[in-house]
Design a protein that fits this description.
- The chain is of the alpha/beta class.
- The chain folds into two domains: 263 residues, 3-Layer(aba) Sandwich (Aldehyde Dehydrogenase, Chain A, domain 1); 183 residues, Aldehyde Dehydrogenase, Chain A, domain 2.
- Helix content is 40%, strand content 21%.
- The chain is built from 15 helices and 22 strands.
- The strands form six sheets. A seven-stranded mixed sheet has the order 14-15-16-13-12-18-19, sandwiched between helices.
- Strand 12, helix 9 and strand 13 form a beta-alpha-beta unit.
- The longest helix has 24 residues.
- It starts with 5 loop residues before the first strand and ends with a strand.
- 7-thionicotinamide-adenine-dinucleotide phosphate (TAP) binds next to helix 7 and helix 8.
- The site of 7-thionicotinamide-adenine-dinucleotide phosphate (TAP) has 27 residues, from helix 7 and helix 8.
């Protein structure tokens, strides 16, 4: 059992003042793997106070000192690689190969890239008539979701450390153990007392406590739009800066000249990776009407090559959903799609054959989808793809941009001018052309209701800074 009923406050594990606990379940086995404490307002106050106390000295460290600290965290993170992979696999149900290639890797890259980004980062600039100083914003509250237990936490912690901002993290209650391991990593890596604190507990107590706390200057949140809205409202009471990384319904625009098999593989990977529990996943394939039949054949073929099942098996690529609740949500969307008149090409409701235990769903593809359908507009957070046809490029772009979201966009094809036209005209924060490689220096964040602010690299550091203008000094 992974049970740990302590919070990490002021450089040590301390007992919770509350007696309530939260059970953590392995979604592949449906078994309890441990318990955490459901923290109290008192626990949070202690953590915020520790962070506040560490602020004067930590915010005055040099960027070279913080670069060294980030490198040391990255090195310690690397030392704990096997443990990280194991805990992510258990609490998220992520296949072990994905826990390594995606989850572990992303977390590591945020620390190493923040260190690298600091090299050229300027905290002071002389602009002739005035000087600009960028100063740490103060104490930051970090609230993270369950879908990428190390990525979501590491990107925030790395940005904050690079900027000299002490933090209080509240990880998702369904995946707290990877974050707790991170606390140990930070400690061993030499993060000063009070600079990193972790308080477990419910969103309603600890999450709300963070968004309303008078001594927290900035809240960085990743999760659902509903909670994001609440955090903005709560933060308004003390005019807090908030950064929100929310949902998406990202388009994959397939051009007329695209290789159909490759396009279908891209679409399949997008819904199968992390079992579709990815805010930036392309969940709408927008394809030329002329290639509808071959694309349908190709996507069936592409999905048939995915192995899903027991996350502990090395060759499994897709595991279960995170929870029974998420399983029910995905089922109801699949029912809605059928009810709305979309054609079920692959999958459907129920569990895949042979996978009775665990929150497994059938990878599902709907065709004959119109963009006004609920399945094309709402974030499902499961392996469900909507295929929508278009007749000309303007229509494709109109469909691509016609949702309340704007987190990511994808385009595949050959003609460079058309690829760039589509990339430039999609209203989203991060565009990927022909499966371009992830760059951890590139900013990540959304337009419209996908959020406010950017993470990763130098943009991620900016979030944790205030800007001061000084006039009259030579
Ligand atoms: P949320 O409910 O938004 O949870 C995200 C984080 O916020 C968790 O740490 C949660 O704590 C906390 N929280 C909950 N209520 C809060 C409140 N009132 N004030 C402050 N913090 C609060 O997301 P979820 O339940 O994990 O997932 C629901 C949906 O969100 C998904 O179906 C998906 O559409 C979307 N989602 C999006 C993303 C990304 S990356 N954009 C990631 C995950 C989920 P507890 O864990 O203790 O509840």
């Amino acid at each position: 059992m992974r049970t740990n009923l302590n919070h990490f406050i002021n450089g040590e594990w301390v007992a919770s003042t509350g007696s309530e606990t939260i059970q953590v379940i392995n979604p592949a086995t449906e078994e309890v793997i441990g318990e955490i404490s459901s923290g109290t307002k008192e626990d949070l106050d202690k953590a915020v106070s520790a962070a506040k106390t560490s602020f004067p000295s930590f915010s005055k460290t040099t960027k070279e000192e913080r670069m060294e600290l980030l490198k040391s965290i990255a090195a310690e993170y690397e030392n704990r690689k096997d443990e990280l992979i194991e805990v992510i696999t258990e609490e998220l149900g992520s296949p072990i190969s994905m826990s390594e290639k995606v989850h572990y890797h992303m977390g590591y890259n945020h620390f190493s890239h923040a260190a690298e980004a600091l090299k050229n980062f300027s905290f002071e600039e002389d602009r002739g008539g005035h000087k600009i100083r960028k100063e740490s914003i103060g104490v930051s509250g970090l609230i993270t979701p369950w879908n990428f237990p190390t990525n979501q936490t590491s990107t925030k912690i790395a940005g904050a450390i690079a900027a000299g901002s002490p933090t209080v993290l509240k990880p998702a209650s369904m995946t707290p153990f990877a974050a707790m391991l991170l606390a140990d990593i930070m400690n061993t890596a030499g993060v000063p007392k009070g600079v990193f604190n972790l308080v477990n507990g419910s969103g309603s107590t600890i999450g709300t406590g963070i968004s309303t706390h008078p001594d927290i200057d900035f809240v960085s949140f990743t999760g659902s739009g509903k909670v994001g809205e609440q955090i903005m409202k709560n933060g308004a009471e003390t005019i807090k800066k908030v950064a929100l990384e929310l949902g998406g319904k990202s388009p994959l625009v397939v051009l007329e000249d695209a290789n159909i098999e490759k396009a279908a593989k891209t679409a399949a990977w997008n819904i199968m990776m992390n079992t579709g529990q990815v805010c930036s996943a392309a969940t709408r394939a927008i394809i030329p009407a002329s290639i509808k039949k071959p694309f349908e054949e190709a996507i069936k073929q592409a999905l048939s090559t995915f192995k899903y099942g027991d996350p502990k098996q090395e060759d499994v690529q897709t595991g279960p959903l995170i929870s029974k609740e998420q399983w029910d949500t995905v089922q109801s969307y699949i029912e809605k799609g059928v009810h709305e008149g979309a054609t079920l090409l692959v999958g459907g409701t129920g569990k895949p054959a042979g996978l009775k235990t665990g929150y497994y769903v059938k990878p599902t593809v709907f065709t004959d989808v119109t963009n006004d359908m609920v399945i094309a507009q709402e974030e499902i957070f499961g392996p469900v793809l909507s295929v929508i046809t278009y007749h000309d490029l303007d229509e494709a772009l109109h469909i691509a941009n016609d949702t309340v979201y704007g987190l990511a966009g994808y385009v595949v094809g050959k003609d460079e001018n058309t690829l760039s036209y589509v990339a430039n005209n999609m209203k989203a924060g991060q565009i990927t052309v022909n499966n371009g490689k992830t760059d951890f220096f590139a900013p990540f964040g959304g337009y419209k209701q996908s959020g406010i602010g950017r993470e990763w690299g130098d943009f991620g550091i900016e979030e944790y800074l205030e800007v001061k203008a000084i006039m009259g000094l030579s």
